[in-house]
Amino acid sequence: MTLEIKEMSKAYGGLTVVDRVSITMEDADIIGVIGPNGAGKSTLFSLVTGFLDGNGGDVVLDGKPLGNASAVERAQAGMVRTFQVPREFAHMTVRENLMAAAPGQGGENLITTFFRPASVARQEKEIAGKVEETIRFLKLGVVADTPAGRLSGGQKKLLELGRALMTGAKLIMLDEPFAGVNPVLIEELSQKIRELNARGIGFLIIEHDLGALSKLVSKLYVMDRGKLIASGEPAAVLSDAAVREAYIGGGAN
Amino acid sequence: MDAYLIAIAIVSGIYLLLALGLNLQFGLTGLINFGHVGFFCVGAYTSAILSTNGVPVAWSLLAAALVGMLAAWPLGVISIRLREDYFAIASLGFSEIVRLVATSEGWLTNGVQGIAGIPRIFSGVTGQSQAIAMLAIVTVFCVLAILAMRRIVRSPFGRMIEAIRDNEEAVKSLGKDPAGFKMQVLLLGSMLAGLSGALYAHYIGYISPDQFIPFITFQIWMAIIMGGVGRISGTVAGVIILMVFLEGSRFLRDIAPFIPEVAMASIRLGAIGLALMLFTIYRPQGLMGDYTKR
Fold first, then answer.
1. Is A107:B157 a contact under the CB 8 Å cutoff?
2. In whole numbers, what is the pLDDT of chain B averaged over residues?
3. Predicted local distance difference test score (pLDDT) of residue A89
4. Per-residue pLDDT tens for B133-173?
5. d(CA A128, CA B18)
6. Strand order of the sheet with strand A202-206?
C-alpha cells in the first residue's frame, strides 16, 4: 500500500494548528510522527482519518485521492486509526469488541436479523474464527471474556490494535500506542507491529517514547507548532539540532 | 376486583410495548428519545381515525404500527446525526408538534374534543370476556415484542448498537456508520409505540390530545430506569414497578383518609417521583441490574 498526505492544514480562526503537513509512505512502511505536546500530531491524525474537517490538503491512499470522504468511508477504504485515550466498547467483552469490528456483516441490519438468521449464523461462525486468531496473536486469551472497560491501559491498546486488524485495514494509524504501557509489553507490541508490517500492513505511529519508536520505524517526521520541521531516518532526525531544540527544549545537549 | 386487575394488566401491557421500544433506543443504543409519546399518539390517532371510518380493526392496528414507524422517518432524517443531547431536544419537540397537530387539525382529529366511539378490538364479545380478549391480544403483542428484542440483543445488529452506545466515534473508526443503525432502532421503537397507541385507543375508546403529553414519555423513562436500563427483564420489571406506584397510590386514601380527593393526583405523581429518587440513590442500576452488570 502507499499513502500520500498532501499539505494537510487546519486552522481555528487565526491559529494554524496543522500547517501544510505532507507525509509520504511507500510500500507499507512503518513511519513515526513525533513532536512536543500541542505540535498538532493528533489533529493531523484526525484530519487524515476524516474525524476533523481540514482547511485544505488531501490524502491519497493507494493512488486514490480521498477528497471529502467521511471518517466512515476512509475507514472502509482501509485506513483505520486508534485513539490516544483508548475507546474500547467498555461494556462489551474483548471478544465482542473484536467481533463488532469485522467488516461486511450481513447480520448488521434488522431485516436479516429477523428473516435470514441462518446466513447470519454462518457468517458469525466465520468471524468468530478470525476473532480467535486475533486473540491468540495478541495474547488476549486470558481476558477474552472480560468487559473491555476493566482491561489495563496496555491491554486496551492491544484491543484497539486487534479491532483495527479485524477490519482488514491496509494502513493502521496508532495514536501513542506505548503511552502508559509497561516496557515488557512495549517490546511485545513493537514485535507484533513488525510482524504485521511484514504481512503488508502499513503503520503510521504518533509516539512520545522515542526510544521504542526509533527502533521500530524506518522514517521519522517531526512536528512542532503545526509544522513539519524535520524528516528522515530516525538516527539522523534525532541528532538534528532544530529537533532537539523543539522536542527536548533549549539547552539540552 | 378481577375487572380492576385485568384493566391494570392491559394498561401495563400497553406501557410495556412502549417501554420495550424505548429500551431498545436508549438502553441498548444510547439514543435519548424524549419524544416517544409522539409515536404513541400517531398510532392512536391513525387507528382511531381509520376504524371510526369503517376500516376493520385488524387493518387499523397494522396501519397504526406502520404510520408510527413512518412518522419517525422525518425525525430521523433531520436529527439522527445530532449529538445525543440535541437529539433528545429535537425528539421532545417532535412529540409536541404531533400533539399540536392533533389539537389544531380539527378536520382530521376532531381537535380538542377528541375522537369518541372508537370500536373495541373484539366487538362481538362484551363485558368481562371483552376485557379478557383485549388482555390476550395485548399479551400476544408483548410476548412477540420481547422475543424480537431477545433476538436483536443476541444478533450482530444488537452487538453493533451496544458498541454505538459505548463509543460512537470508535464505531466510525471501524468503518461503520452509526446513523444507519440508529435510524433502524428509531423506526422499530416507533413502530412499537404506534402499535401501543392503537391498542390504547381501542381499549379506552376515546382519545384526545391532552392524553399525549410529554409526561407519558417520562413515565416510560422512569420505568426503564427503575427496572434496569438495557435489560429486557429490567424493562418488564420497571413497568410493573411503575404500575405498582401509579395504581398503589390510588389506595393510599384507604390507609390515610385525611388526604383530600383533590390532592390525590399530586400525591400519585409525588409517589412515582419518590420511587425514582429512592431507586437512583439505593439501586442506580435498577431492579434487574443494567447493562454494566454482566
1. yes
2. 94
3. 97
4. 999 999 999 999 999 999 999 999 999 999 999 999 999 99
5. 34
6. A79-81, A171-175, A202-206, A30-34, A219-224, A227-232
Cell of A19: 500547517
Within an 8 Å CB–CB cutoff, is residue B144 touching chain A?
A: no
Cβ neighbours for A43, distance < 8 A, ≥ 6 positions apart = A10, A17, A18, A52
B257 pLDDT above the threshold of 80: yes
Interface of B with A in 157-186 (CB under 8 A): 157-160, 162-163, 165-167, 169-177, 180-181, 184
Using one digit for the tens of pLDDT, what is the confidence trace for A122-149? 999 999 999 999 999 999 999 999 999 9
Q: Taking a C-beta distance cutoff of 8 angstroms, is the pair B291, B162 a contact?
A: yes
Q: What are chain A's domains?
A: 3-88+167-248 (3.40.50.300), 91-150 (no CATH)
Cell matching residue B105: 387539525
Quote the strand ranges of chain A, DSSP E.
3-12, 15-25, 30-34, 58-61, 64-65, 79-81, 171-175, 202-206, 219-224, 227-232
Q: What is the mean pLDDT of residues B189-202?
A: 98
What distance in Å separates residue B207's CA from the closest CA in chain A?
Answer: 32
Lookup: cell for B241: 414497578
Whole-number Cα distances in Å, B148 to A94, A115, B152: 26, 11, 6
Q: Which residues of A touch B162 (CB under 8 A)?
A: 89, 91-92, 96
Q: Is A225 left (phi over 0), alpha (psi -120 to 50) or beta?
A: left
Q: Residue B122: CA atoms inside 13 Å, Cβ hemisphere, count?
A: 14
d(CA A151, CA A96): 14
Query: By the 8 A CB rule, do B17 and B193 touch?
Result: yes
pLDDT exceeds cutoff 60 at B294 = no
Confidence of residue A253 (pLDDT cuts 50, 70, 90): very low
What is residue A229's three-state secondary structure?
strand
- DSSP E strands in A40-86: the ranges are 58-61, 64-65, 79-81
Confidence class for position A180, pLDDT limits 50, 70, 90: confident
Task: Kindly report, residue by residue over A92-108, the tens digit of the pLDDT.
Answer: 999 999 999 999 999 99
Minimum-distance CB partner of A107 among B148, B156, B172: B156
User: Which amino acid, B104?
Assistant: S
Contacts of B175 in chain A (CB under 8 A): 72-73, 75-76, 80, 103, 167
Residue A243 has pLDDT above 70, yes or no: yes
Look at residues A213, A220, A241 and name the one whose alpha carbon lies nearest to residue A252: A241
Percent of chain B with pLDDT over 70: 99
pLDDT grade, residue B265 (50/70/90)? confident
Q: What is the predicted pLDDT for the residue at A251?
A: 44
Question: Would you say the C-alpha torsion B82, B86, B91, B97 has a positive or negative sign?
Answer: negative
Name residues whose C-beta falls within 8 Å of residue A116's C-beta, 6 or more positions apart in sequence.
Answer: A106
Backbone φ/ψ region at B260: left (φ over 0), alpha (ψ -120 to 50), beta: beta
- Cell 443503525 locates to B181
Rounded to an integer, what distance in angstroms lies between the CA atom of residue B238 and that of residue B30? 18
